[in-house]
Amino acid sequence: MSRRTAREHIFKMIFQTEFHKEEEIDEAIEIYRESIENINKSDMSFIKSEIKGIIENKNVVDDTINKYAEGWEISRIAKVDLAILRIAIYEIIYVNDIPNKVAANEAVELAKVFSSDKSPSFINGVLGKIINNV
Question: What's the domain range around 50?
Answer without folding.
Answer: 3-133
